[in-house]
């Protein structure tokens, strides 16, 4: 068994590109590329499989002070514009003491200090700057209650930790990770924060937010016991509800439900909210409106090549869903996967973690498409209510270009993975059936990931009153881009007869790919203004071919294409 800190160091050191997208009934598998046999994907737009819930419209990051910086604001604007629904944003360190200066894996707001007599002093200036930036863009905060202010920590010194991409950081879980020396004072801080939020943004707005208690309390982020976390939750939930009875709060944000100790922690928490004695009221149970946990993959370098492990991430998700489903009174509550990623350390660069080489190019974008699609299926199989899955990736201000952090943009230039989310933003209405008689589905990936001779060539499809969309990807855990493209035939029925407009979008080595454009420039670390403009254009979602009118007869249409390894296509039909 690892100690708590050893486990976190191992966890933070992982790197795999794994964004879990799950789509119920969306399974298609290519044949072996060397055979040249086409992959046939059937889509039935008449067979609905539930709402196309925007589970992808959730993002988060460690460094809250990046929010209102130049590139942070630019990226948040772009994220808000890719979705028709409000995007949810989760950040750490909203109650941490400090001067508000950003650093890797660090942030602070100085929301709470005490005067010479030990009386609370509240300051909302920095938190307001963060939340104002979200609200101005129509985004919804997932307001994380944490971490511990220095004046309330049971072990305040040392308080500030230091982090570098080389991970020669020692123990990063310093004074901010400890329980409060006074639970009532901490609860009063939470109460005042919620009350201030209602005063600033209005009751109706704050009612749309989620509040959550802490982050990953089963590892080093919480230097207390499980029972002390449960006590903290009770005090926080009571404070939030006193300030706004209609507010939504939840937890426990454990990471790795497939781990035995994480599962034990999660079950202890859920047992308490259902049947435990409340630390504040003395009554049975605790208020809970949303259940949260984290799921991560584990990439490695194998024979000089990055090998992802999407199966590991999906097993974490499945384990979390299974735990929630075992509580009859809780199984219908919304679930938010508070961090859902290929690995566990966004601030670990490719420089010191070669397994993170997936992050700049199309492996991250295809992984994201393939993984998220399966989340729908796993949730449906377990009978739970998946609300969203947070992609823990943002941007790292003033860092070298394409350094290999887990981010959506570098120096204001969008990476290919952000275009996968742009594609998701175009998929509206109901999910519809895609052929199931293929090699990969969520169950086979749970069992063995995507490691065989065949890649995962699959699709997710949706339809509303005026559009039909099909996302198709060619994913494999091994990042071998030397294999030839696969021939794919998408056969669709359920489209309206007559002329229909087709727009075909693509992410591959030539399209929607700022990283390849940067490399063709010679990988400049000081690109000229003209080069920056070219990179910004290359980072946008691009058409694979010109828009065209196609004729639909008897509701049927067929599209044939070559799809390279780690590429993603979106077919959009509109009428």
Note down, in words, how this protein is organized.
With 575 residues, this protein is an alpha/beta fold. It has a single domain, classed as TIM Barrel, CATH 3.20.20.80. 28% of the residues lie in helices and 25% in strands. The protein has 13 helices and 26 strands. GO terms for molecular function: hydrolase activity, hydrolyzing O-glycosyl compounds.
Task: Considering the chains and any ligands shown, give keywords for the structure.
GH39_cat, hydrolase, 575 residues, disordered N terminus, Beta-xylosidase, nine-stranded parallel sheet, 25% strand, hydrolase activity, hydrolyzing O-glycosyl compounds, TIM Barrel, signal, 13 helices, alpha/beta
Topology:
Blueprint: H1 4-13, E1 20-22, E2 39-51, E3 58-61, H2 70-81, E4 88-91, E5 112-114, E6 120-122, H3 125-136, E7 140-145, H4 183-201, H5 203-206, E8 210-213, H6 226-243, E9 248-255, H7 260-275, E10 290-296, E11 300-302, E12 305-307, H8 310-325, E13 334-341, H9 362-382, E14 385-389, E15 391-392, E16 409-410, E17 413-414, H10 416-425, E18 430-434, H11 442-448, E19 456-463, E20 467-475, E21 486-493, E22 498-507, H12 514-520, H13 529-538, E23 542-543, E24 548-552, E25 556-563, E26 568-574
Parallel strand pairs: 2-21, 3-4, 3-15, 4-7, 7-8, 8-9, 9-10, 10-13, 13-14
Antiparallel strand pairs: 2-18, 5-6, 11-12, 16-17, 18-19, 19-20, 20-26, 21-25, 22-23, 22-24, 22-26
Signal peptide: 1-22
InterPro entries: GH (IPR017853), GH39_cat (IPR049166), Glyco_hydro_39 (IPR000514), Glycosyl_Hydrolase_39 (IPR051923)
Domain Glycosyl hydrolases family 39 N-terminal catalytic: 41-538
